[in-house]
Amino acid sequence: MRDPRGHTYLSPGRRKELDEVTSGRLPNPRHILAPLQVTKAVKAGDIDAKTRRRIFDAVGFTFPNRLLTTKEAPDGCPDHVLRALGVALLACFCSDPELAAHPQVLNKIPILSTFLTTRGDPDDAARRSMIDDTYQCLTAVAGTPRGPRHLIAGGTVSALCQAYLGHGYGFDQALALLVGLLAAAETQCWKEAEPDLLAVLRGLSEDFQKAEDASKFELCQLLPIFLPPTTVPSECLRDLQAGLARILGSKLSSWQRNPALKLAARLAHACGSDWIPAGSSGSKFLALLVNLACVEVRLALEETGTEVKEDVVTACYALMELGIQECTRCEQSLLKEPQKVQLVSIMKEAIGAVIHYLQQVGPEKQKEPFVFASVRILGAWLAEETSSLRKEVCQLLPFLVRYAKTLYEEAEEANDLSQQVATLAISPTTPGPTWPGDALRLLLPGWCHLTVEDGPREILIKEGAPSLLCKYFLQQWELTSPGHDTSVLPDSVEIGLQTCCHIFLNLVVTAPGLIKRDACFTSLMNTLMTSLPALVQQQGRLLLAANVATLGLLMARLLSTSPALQGTPASRGFFAAAILFLSQSHVARATPGSDQAVLALSPDYEGIWADLQELWFLGMQAFTGCVPLLPWLAPAALRSRWPQELLQLLGSVSPNSVKPEMVAAYQGVLVELARANRLCREAMRLQAGEETASHYRMAALEQCLSEP
């Protein structure tokens, strides 16, 4: 009933019935009609929030609590009817957001979750109504700030999965609520209910593989949300790839094709190429994916003024990046050589469109996620290919330096941009590993190649890239300092530091004047000197130590007149650490059936020598060049006993086991030390230096040691 002002109220008779029921007395099923009529009115939307609250004040939680937990129903009343009424009352209350977050509602989550999987007559209207009301309650709770966490802890995710897999009444509501919970708390959902969620993924993947109607396009949008943050089951990958192959191999409109491309991008981002089968069918499918992605990119970016579907283009970027990886893979690539050549040509045209787009980007757009995504794919291309599109790349370099500098100076916003890029292409959830959070790291590999070439290097220097790189290196180095937990750092930090070192090495060789005049390199040298002693002692960081040692030795030759290198504690510590790196690379190893040992790599060096050897030889050459420039260095090397131990090592192994390039490197160091210091010469003679030099045909060393 309504009063003249439009408010609903209970008649005195209904009030008496309700009072009897809420008091705990259930003398007759007829008394249930009073609250049932109230809930029907609420569902029909016939009352306002104020009246709904008055109903709650009259009924409270005591009565629905008893209805939900009672084990004995009155004669003639099925027990599930009482539970249905209890859920209906809760659903009525939960339409008020404040009540949906009430502890008395939250503690019903486990009970409500069990109702989703309780079997019964599917045609029973009361049971169906109870299921609808249960979903209404759980959905209302999910909409509160802390609701998803309570639902996950209450076992709702598993119950929803089972309800969906059972395909009983309301299973579509279970799926919708699962989607919402995964969007709100993906990690927690997978942690609490991984087996059940994987079962749902298997079901969805199988449905996707079999679908012949429009539902397959809907599944394309749904499936990315259910991909786990860890390994995707192989049977799911097979079904997903087969379904995508059928979709993308057909003639489609954009609304049909785009969700499929986004699903493929999500799989590429999470699994690389592992989800694509080997053989002819897999290579054709991958080529098709990359082709479609490149076409979409060109269509979107080449025409100025066209509205860009940024989420679709970003997904295509992920597929292009997969194509780049496969085209540059030497072993176990899915692609044959002719396919690689064709795809590189197609991707070159798409990258040209990306460059064209970036050339139009003004300062007001530099913080947009799509610009970040576009710089990322360009960085991935430049990491492998800089010879093509050289003119266009050089024209874009000033923008790239300014862009990287802007994001470096606003690092927190750059981090946020990487997250936005990740979500832009895929779904409301964060996919797999996060993309690197700064533009500079994306560009480092390409810049490493470009600093070898005169034209691009001059542009980078003119735009201030070396100074920016020094600042970036010092900032990233702070993350690896003793005060930080390096175990939680992503590998990309150390890889970025190594790539910076390679760029600096290129500049040392090709632009030595820049190293001497730019103050940022003096700061860099100081950091290298203070950091190397601790770095060479750390397990698993030998490759980074090699980069730091070699770069520092080469820079020391150019900055030899700097006060910091005149025998200061920092300089002595650095060269002692550099000697440690250079001297521990090889050992004498006994061979079965032979009286003489052979020269062999040390265990720590052996596994990474392919990446290390060029740095080691360059470091030996740089150390040799430092000896005549720093008078204190030869006596320091003598105190370290490196020349003596080196001659001892050579004397203990077969000369035939020492490669000519090793002989040349060792002789270079020994000759310069002998020339620079009389005590060094005497120590070498005492270590049978002349005899060893003769055995290895080190004529320069033999002559030097024969002199007084």
Automatic annotation (TrEMBL):
It comes from the Eukaryota. SUPFAM superfamilies: ARM repeat. This is Neurochondrin. One of its GO terms (biological process) is neuron projection development. The gene is NCDN. One of its GO terms (cellular component) is dendrite. Pfam families: Neurochondrin. Belongs to the neurochondrin family. The lineage of its organism: Eukaryota, Metazoa, Chordata, Craniata, Vertebrata. Residues 1-26 are annotated as: Disordered.
